[in-house]
What we know:
Elements: H1 8-37, H2 43-68, H3 77-101, H4 117-156, H5 186-189
Helix pairs in contact: 1-2, 1-4, 2-3, 3-4
Amino acid sequence: MAFSEFSSVGKKKLGVHVLLILLDVIALALAARVNIFQEFFFMADLFPLGLAIATLIILFFTLVLDLVVNGTPTARPAFEIGLLYVLSIFWLAFNAFSTSRWRNIPMDCSSIPAEYPDERTWCRDVQALKSFVWIEFVALFFTASFILRYAITEHNRGRKQVWSGPLSRYVPRDLPPRSEFMRQTFTDYFGARGTSAFEKI
């Protein structure tokens, strides 16, 4: 696998894919810290942890497949758009639930007495987690939207091949016009009376 195999569009898409993974890793680390403090008890804390793990696995394996397997269906725009939109829907639903449960946690963590340093640290972790779960949702949603918009734009320009291969190796170019040879029918090569058109050459 050579990095030169990827198009300029593909390199940007792969860079965004890596960014999504990094954001997810940060959310996962924060969710783990929050859950360790609460001893994995509250569902509002467990949802971000479980979803971050699932998202990391999915994004990592789709990235690896895109890098290793040329032409893998998981790298085609239609699959990626659907996958990212589904993930963003899950993040939206779980974020709404968790955020509503975290509303009683003070925004100003310094209001917690200094005699409780662990609680202060936990409060800061929750506030950071609250931010990153929404950042992850926005990143997933806008990535899917940009891929969809780009694919539709290319499709409207007559480059319908954008849907048939991995976007990481897609090079925007117009398809050549169909030649006379391509427009030949079966009977042009094998005449109605059984005479092959090639015999006329």
